Amino acid sequence: GVGTGRGSNGVQSAVQQASIGLPDGLTPQVAVIVISAKLGDSFERMLRDLKKYFALQRWNDVQVIGGSASDIFLEEEGDVKLMLLGISETRFTTFAVDSSTSLNLDMRQEGIRETILGTEHSHFEDPIFMLFRTSEFANAENVISMLDFAFPNSAKFGVHSGKIPLRRQAVFHNEEVMEDGMCGIVMEGKIAIDLIVSQGARSVGTVLLVEEVEDDTTITKVKEMGTSAESQGAPMTLFDMWQFTDIISGRDQGLAEKCTMLGLGIDKFEEGEEAEYLVRRIIGFDSANKSLAIDGQVRQGQIIQFQVRDGQSALAEMESLLKKVAVCKIEKSVEGKIPMALLLFSDTERDVDTRKALAMEIALVKETLKISVPVFEVITEGQIGPLPAPGFVNYYPIKGVGVCGSTFEHSTTSVFAILYGSSPNG
Q1: Strand 128-133 vs strand 156-160: parallel, antiparallel, or unpaired?
Q2: Of 37, 160, 231, 280, whose CA is between 20 and 30 Å from 243?
Q3: What is the pTM of this model?
Q4: Percentage of the chain lying above the pLDDT 70 cut
Q5: Residues 6+ positions from 83 with CB-CB distance below 8 Å
Q6: Residue 392 has what pLDDT?
Q7: What is the side-by-side order of every strand in the sheet holding 128-133?
Q8: Do 308 and 202 meet the contact criterion of CB atoms below 8 Å apart?
């Protein structure tokens, strides 16, 4: 069940609404909660209230994870959003890590499992991870990469709270409020998941090779790939040149004025083939030297290409992804599993009217997959989810082992998670 509430006392309303949506006789095992950052001074009290309301329902073993979100993202619904979830024959285990957690890139798989999940739960084979992290947690990418290594066949998705000016940002682990760390819920048993990561962007201009980088995030020199000219120079110099030579069409120039992003090549560039990209925000330009900076790491020798938002392309991408998920849903139904919940973490720049865009995406998912389940959607500064890119950001390049290294931090995506459980007749 899903519920919302307003103000620092909104937890009670959220619990009441979410309880109504629970199947008869089901005791929730986990609560996922998002609270407006403007209520930062009340986080601790609100989490205590949540536990108190659970106790009144005699739900004494409900585990809690979640985090803050910018107050403007939730204001149409309230200041609190809550999902109560329970799936039969499934174990839910929470964990939390911060800068003091003893994790390093030299650890073996068993050591990572025990450090994060504890010895009691380290034997989990292919659990599902839902993650919440703060933007201040500098070790987040390392932790995600280590989870990929320790659990190479596990699905991992989630969100980070983003940097919110003059607001408190945190993640929640039961009654603990963490301003520098990551927490998560691990789900193992008769549960399954389908994940959709929609970047909603389209490539424009020519493919570029990165020749010079500063501070791991600033690109100062590039070279065209697959063209007769193979022009070299600063990235924005070439981008401006393409606009005058019609390499970028008038329509795409209009889209670029609204939102220009950068795709980091995942696969080796092959002329004549369409490359796969991890899309990043451009967070700054230098008007003097025409360099640009992105919200992620980039390396010399990497393939890049400019990206724009395109509603038609985004819709086509979603429809293509949903066709694949529809097949997976049929396969799961044969195994006696049915959809139980739909979670959506979407970025703040998906559309000018973000709520309208979200509603359209959710409607498309429900219509295509023919599902009617509780929906927990949150608009966030950043998301966590997989792309088909083993070995891209991967400290453990093990050939042929699951999907090791395929989980990324995003800032321009919609991440859909469809959770499945056993049907009553399954």
Answers
A1: parallel
A2: 280
A3: 0.86
A4: 88
A5: 1, 2, 18, 31, 32, 33, 341, 343, 374, 376
A6: 35
A7: 90-98, 181-189, 128-133, 156-160, 382-386, 407-410
A8: yes
